[in-house]
């Protein structure tokens, strides 16, 4: 018989932010300083990113070791991406894009470990990051070009009658960038983890039913293992897409296409 | 949907932004110039 | 520290728009949290960490 010792209420429960150490002094209004599971995993991400770069350091030797080949090629790829997207005289954004890439990739991969919490599945982190990048890019464009920044919304060569409609459409598509960048990351992570949770719940019940059912369940389990591989690939690809689009938005702000 | 009814919005965004800017600071001051020095040294040794 | 020296990389010079953006995002999230906490269902939620302080302030 199926013996459920624990209650699973919903596959979305894995995304709840629960505090470990509550710290509820009413300072500055509703400022809540408690250490939550998201905070713990953010600290784990910082520790892993910085630890990876310290351990794979190779102590200034010119011949790379196995670890430092991976890191050097990651640095070269991101540097090439920044140089191609933003332009060779704007390479100063490389540390920011590099840190953003490693933060998102290690945060996503932390969630692929069983029972790990993905920091980017929370709305505030994913959409907050993209709103921060959107506002930063707008401030950057306004500071470089001043009022001429609004010429971005009129593509060159439009007939004069179409300009009001086109400005409205361009403005809406520009504002949608703030949300779409974050929602792309958020939706991919939440959908993947919810699917894995639902399938693993079913497979766990099937595996513990009887020996014959357990042997037959190996076939859906192979599909499940393939889905985990897909999740790992999605984690890497979503981090890469996030950074490529950030570079593209910075280029649009600096050079007004 | 638990992400929407959380009461820890400020907590979440604080941890995320502090983590991102800590990584950016440590990378740009300590780690990435090490890579630049390594690549430049390799160019100097092979090309000059 | 850990075999790496500190280089004088400019941090504020490239990143000041994103610092302003993160300050604006933080302010927006604070206002959103305050609005969300005044709503009706947030008061009755057992997981609400601010319920105790609000009740003790009311009594």
TrEMBL record, chain A:
Alphabetical keyword list: ATP synthesis, CF(0), Hydrogen ion transport, Ion transport, Membrane, Mitochondrion, Transmembrane, Transmembrane helix, Transport
Primary residence: mitochondrion
GO CC entries: mitochondrial inner membrane; proton-transporting ATP synthase complex
Pfam (any one): ATP-synt_A
Membrane topology of this protein: Multi-pass membrane protein
CDD domains: ATP-synt_Fo_a_6
Annotated compartments: Mitochondrion inner membrane
Single GO MF annotation: proton-transporting ATP synthase activity, rotational mechanism
TM regions (residue ranges): 38-56, 92-109, 115-142, 203-226, 232-250
Similarity comment: Belongs to the ATPase A chain family.
HAMAP family referenced in this protein's UniProt entry, alphabetically: ATP_synth_a_bact
Name listed for the protein in its UniProt record: ATP synthase subunit a
Source organism of this protein record: Dioszegia hungarica
From TrEMBL, chain B:
Membrane topology annotation: Single-pass membrane protein
GO-annotated biological processes: proton motive force-driven ATP synthesis
Coiled coil, from the record: none
Tree of life domain: Eukaryota
MF terms (GO), sorted A to Z: proton transmembrane transporter activity
Places the protein is found: Membrane; Mitochondrion inner membrane
InterPro entries: ATP_synth_su8_fun
Signal peptide range in chain numbering: none
Keywords: ATP synthesis, CF(0), Hydrogen ion transport, Ion transport, Membrane, Mitochondrion, Transmembrane, Transmembrane helix, Transport
Assigned GO CC terms: mitochondrial inner membrane; proton-transporting ATP synthase complex
Residue stretches spanning the membrane: 6-32
Family, per entry: Belongs to the ATPase protein 8 family.
Subunit structure: F-type ATPases have 2 components, CF(1) - the catalytic core - and CF(0) - the membrane proton channel.
Protein purpose: Mitochondrial membrane ATP synthase (F(1)F(0) ATP synthase or Complex V) produces ATP from ADP in the presence of a proton gradient across the membrane which is generated by electron transport complexes of the respiratory chain. F-type ATPases consist of two structural domains, F(1) - containing the extramembraneous catalytic core and F(0) - containing the membrane proton channel, linked together by a central stalk and a peripheral stalk. During catalysis, ATP synthesis in the catalytic domain of F(1) is coupled via a rotary mechanism of the central stalk subunits to proton translocation.
Name under which the protein is recorded: ATP synthase protein 8
Organism annotation: Dioszegia hungarica
TrEMBL record, chain C:
Segments for region (Disordered): 39-59
GO molecular function, one term: proton-transporting ATP synthase activity, rotational mechanism
Entry keyword S-adenosyl-L-methionine: no
Keyword Nucleotidyltransferase: no
Organism expressing this protein natively: Dioszegia hungarica
Stored InterPro entries: ATP_synth_F0_jsu
Protein name as it appears in the record: ATPase, F0 complex, subunit J
GO cellular component, one term: proton-transporting ATP synthase complex
UniProt keyword list: Membrane, Transmembrane, Transmembrane helix
Transmembrane segments: 15-33
């Amino acid at each position: 018989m199926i013996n459920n010792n624990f209650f699973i209420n919903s596959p979305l429960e894995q995304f709840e932010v629960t505090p470990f150490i509550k710290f509820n002094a009413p300072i500055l209004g509703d400022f809540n300083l408690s250490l939550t599971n998201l905070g713990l995993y953010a600290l784990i991400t910082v520790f892993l990113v910085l630890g990876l770069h310290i351990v794979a350091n190779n102590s200034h030797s010119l011949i790379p070791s196995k670890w430092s080949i991976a890191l050097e090629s990651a640095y070269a790829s991101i540097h090439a991406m920044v140089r191609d997207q933003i332009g060779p005289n704007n390479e100063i954004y490389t540390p920011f894009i590099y840190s953003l890439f490693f933060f998102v990739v290690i945060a996503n991969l932390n969630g692929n470990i069983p029972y790990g919490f993905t920091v980017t599945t929370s709305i505030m982190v994913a959409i907050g990051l993209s709103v921060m990048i959107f506002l930063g890019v707008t401030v950057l464009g306004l500071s470089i070009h001043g009022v001429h920044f609004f010429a971005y919304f009129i593509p060159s060569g439009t007939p004069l009658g179409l300009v009001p409609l086109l400005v409205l459409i361009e403005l809406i598509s520009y504002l949608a960038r703030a949300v779409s960048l974050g929602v792309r990351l958020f939706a991919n992570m939440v959908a993947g983890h919810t699917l894995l949770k639902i399938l693993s719940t079913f497979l766990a019940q099937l595996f513990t039913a009887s020996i014959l059912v357990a042997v037959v369940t190996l076939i859906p389990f192979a599909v499940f293992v393939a889905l985990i591989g897909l999740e790992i690939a999605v984690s890497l690809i979503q981090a890469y897409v996030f950074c490529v689009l950030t570079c593209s938005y910075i280029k649009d702000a600096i050079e007004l296409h | 949907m638990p992400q929407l009814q959380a009461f820890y919005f400020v907590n979440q965004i604080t941890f995320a932004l502090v983590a991102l800017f800590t990584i950016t600071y440590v990378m740009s001051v300590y780690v990435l110039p090490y890579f630049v020095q390594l690549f430049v040294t390799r160019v100097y040794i092979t090309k000059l | 520290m850990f075999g790496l020296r500190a280089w004088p990389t400019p941090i504020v010079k490239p990143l000041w728009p994103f610092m302003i953006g993160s300050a604006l995002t933080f302010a927006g999230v604070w206002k959103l949290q305050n609005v969300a906490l005044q709503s009706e269902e947030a008061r009755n939620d057992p997981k609400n960490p601010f319920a105790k302080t609000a009740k003790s302030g009311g009594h």
